[in-house]
């Protein structure tokens, strides 16, 4: 498990396991299952589930759910592949549902 001190971080709201750094936020304008989502360049302390092809608001993608490695809470998803050229920048990025995150300092 990765531990970071001195930097603002986002943790799993359920168990406080650190899953992302504030500095890695790309966008706060995503729609997730439970409402708002944040896209991050990187994530940590996560397990990646089985990928699936899915039509989302912005296009057709291969995505996989991401889970907290400490408590198994589903946190959001990662983009494996974007089938539409303008969306390629999302590949390898992570979207976390904000209701599952706790911002800590």
Automatic annotation (TrEMBL):
It holds the Pfam family Yippee-Mis18. The keyword Metal-binding applies. Residues 8-105 form the Yippee domain. It comes from the Eukaryota. InterPro entries: Yippee (IPR034751), Yippee/Mis18/Cereblon (IPR004910), Yippee_fam (IPR039058). Keywords: Metal-binding, Zinc. The keyword Metal-binding applies. Belongs to the yippee family. This is Protein yippee-like. It comes from Penstemon davidsonii.
